[in-house]
Amino acid sequence: MNLLIVNGYNKEGWNKLQKKGLQHICDFYRDQLLEINPKLKTTYIHPSIDLKQIYEEEFLKSFDGIVWTGSSLNIYDNTKQIQNQIMLMKILVKNKIKIFGSCWGMQVYTIANNGDVKKNNKGREIGISYNIALNKRGRSHNMYINKPYLFDAFCSHLDHITTLPKNSFSLAENNYSIQAISSKNFWGTQYHPEFNFKFTAQILNARKKILIKEKCFTKNQINSVIKAYNKPNEKQFSQSLLNDKIRKTELTNWLKFIRK
């Protein structure tokens, strides 16, 4: 199986995380997928970094599926870097290519298909998204085969879908936002099924100053959270986070979906 991984970050956004020692987002996502299927082949593209790069339709159609990563961008800023990603998404949709979008990937899909994304007036949801509940569609959707009807997931986002994209349906929500959507060829989550405790702790550490400034955490609180993420235990966290098989259920089911 041959996958294309689209890097949602621009150069500035990723450099801020890379300076804190995070593994490159495409490499990290690839490694999480390889744990599910070690025979996967992957290629990366960077539409918000390689601004002059043209992606031919035949090249895009040569892949079995597309994975779209998260990002530190805000889609309503509508910069050239963001416009490049929206344009690429429209090409993929037109060619009916199967896509999995994590967080930012779902937001790009939404805007490319006449939906809307806005800054959430509830503030930033970061670290763990608690009590995500599958709705009636979600309980019968292939993305959630073998997933609990109520679960927690790793997350990092400020924005949320306010209008669903065309021909799409919500599959899961919590008290913060819509947490998953699907259409015929697109599955997306607002949370990150690819994230684990270690990677999420690194993100919290890299963004510590802004999170304290936004009053998401006090300094003592964020240090305690990072410490807990680095040594997770069953008393503090649910199996939907501790069990990698449950955590990555959506990706496992998507790989089965595109193989069919």
Describe this protein's structure.
The protein has 260 residues and is an alpha/beta fold. The chain contains twelve helices and eleven strands. The chain has one domain: Rossmann fold, CATH 3.40.50. The protein has helices at 11-18, 25-36, 57-61, 80-94, 104-112, 136-140, 197-206, 208-213, 219-230, 239-242, 244-247, 249-259; strands spanning 2-6, 41-45, 65-68, 99-102, 116-119, 125-134, 150-157, 159-163, 169-173, 178-182, 186-189. The strands form two sheets. Strands 2-1-3-4-11-10-9-6-7 form a nine-stranded mixed beta sheet, with helices on both faces. It has a two-stranded antiparallel sheet with strand order 5-8. Strand 9 and strand 10 (178-182) form a beta hairpin. The longest helix has 15 residues, at 80-94. The mean pLDDT is 97.
Write the layout of secondary structure elements.
Elements: E1 2-6, H1 11-18, H2 25-36, E2 41-45, H3 57-61, E3 65-68, H4 80-94, E4 99-102, H5 104-112, E5 116-119, E6 125-134, H6 136-140, E7 150-157, E8 159-163, E9 169-173, E10 178-182, E11 186-189, H7 197-206, H8 208-213, H9 219-230, H10 239-242, H11 244-247, H12 249-259
Parallel strand pairs: 1-2, 1-3, 3-4, 4-11
Antiparallel strand pairs: 5-8, 6-7, 6-9, 9-10, 10-11
Helix pairs in contact: 4-5, 7-9
The total strand number stands at 11
Top-tier CATH class: Alpha Beta
Strand order within the widest sheet?
2-1-3-4-11-10-9-6-7
Residue runs with pLDDT of under 50 for 5 or more positions: none
Q: Characterize the main sheet.
A: 9 strands, mixed
